[in-house]
Amino acid sequence: MASAPPRDQMWIFAYGSLIWNPCFDHVERRTGIVRGWHRSFCLGWDRWFRGSEKWPGLMLALDQGGQCNGIVFRLPADGIEENLLELARREIRLIPHSFPARWINVSTGEGSVRALTFAMDRTAPGYVGRLSPAEVADALAMAVGQFGSMAEYLRNTVVQLEELGLRDRNLWRLQAMVAERIERAVERRASSDRRSP
């Protein structure tokens, strides 16, 4: 926080569930683009929130390279500490943390802002960014945990981005792959049930 901007310019960049389920108060929000990072299901393996021991899930993080569109939220100047604490409680569950907070520059239609976000540490044991799209889709189609399914998490993110006029073609492709896997699993179960006495 030593390099934090002035209190009235404290922004948070959201690229996943914080877009559709922010855990902090805000006084302004804008769409924006981050260059040098991209949205990726590269944080694994979740065995509680949206996964289990049998079917662990993957979570979104910012990974190096490319670009990412999302939302920047400006926190109220008189509520910085409590809102950052709430954000930390939600996002930082383990120490050391696989995707630590960092300052990034976000380009918005109203100019560039410096924002706090969570980006993947590729040296962390939780980094699984080398999985193929098929392996990611396999995991997302099956994983369910205390907070719901990974398929729902993916869909919520895609829907919210679309409503904001933001398109992430990789997430769209991944969503189609996950839907195909779920449909095949339902068909197999229905076929098995018909064969049962």
What would you call the quaternary organization? Answer: single chain
Weakly predicted, low-confidence segments: none
What value does the Rg take, in angstroms? 18 Å
SS strand fraction: 25-35%
Give the mean pLDDT: 89
- How many DSSP H or I helices? 5
Query: What's the main sheet like?
Result: 5 strands, mixed, barrel
Return the structural class. alpha+beta
| Elements, N to C (H/E) | EHEEHEEHEEHH
Number of DSSP strand runs: 7
Shape: elongated
Share of helix among residues? 25-40%
Strand order of the largest sheet: 1-3-2-4-5
| End-to-end distance | 65 Å
Structure description:
By secondary structure, this protein is an alpha+beta fold. Helix content is 34%, strand content 31%. The protein is built from 5 helices and 7 strands; from the N terminus they run E-H-E-E-H-E-E-H-E-E-H-H. It has helices at residues 17-20, 80-91, 133-142, 150-163, 169-195, and strands at residues 11-14, 28-46, 57-74, 101-108, 111-118, 144-145, 148-149. The strands form 2 sheets. Strands 1-3-2-4-5 form a 5-stranded mixed beta barrel. Strands 6-7 form a two-stranded antiparallel sheet. The longest helix has 27 residues, at 169-195. It is elongated and about 65 Å long. It starts with 10 loop residues before the first strand and ends with a helix. The mean pLDDT is 89.
